[in-house]
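Render DUF6382 domain-containing protein in 3D.
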Amino acid sequence: MREEYERDLHHAWMILETDELYKEDYQMRMLMENAIPGLLSVRGQGKDDKSQYRYEISGKISVKAKGEKEHWKFADLENFMRQFIQVLYAVKNYLLDVNCLSLDPGHIYVSDEIYYFCYCPGLEGNILEKFHELTEYFVRETDYEQKEAVYLAYELHKASMEENYNIEYALERILEKKENEMESIQPEKKAGYDLQEELILDDWIAEQEMKGQVVKDRQSVWGFLNQRLQKRRKKRESQWDEIMADDSEE
């Protein structure tokens, strides 16, 4: 697939070109005759035995550009995921193929915290595999100053490696698990959120390390996570030394 961009004083377009012969099938008629929530408006045409799809992106920035300006925080990730799930439902309701959604960060756009996805008829690939690749992007571009975001990004990535997983169920399971863990912490500690989240993340990081499932695309990221794990281990060792010291005094 090839992409290019056109702009004038008032509009901007993203143009995707595929090698398939253009067909005005039911998918294009459905896309052009309906304003499907969460999808970029598109017009298609044939050119030299190829297909071109022209997407209106005026006033929007790509998810890729957003990630380059600022790393993803927990609220951003949760908002994105909930809107993505709604788009999956909308696509199915209009009898379209969810596998034709592009989850390339450069093809997803956002404006005023509303995300718009690119539907490209004939696009190859499985939506679950595409989502797995998207979670790898989130893992790389998450704000590692915010442990809450780290937790969500890595749990989504882990869920995407399960066989025949359900995206909506995976998100709800992760958020519910986190909420339950938060509620189990004593109320007087909840004022300092970093403290409780450190407990949750340390257990999670240890689990990922044991399973060898942590993505290490960015050494600085792994260094940060490993540092948190080492901190907890040192704390345990210190507590053990104190116990041994008390025993020896007796």
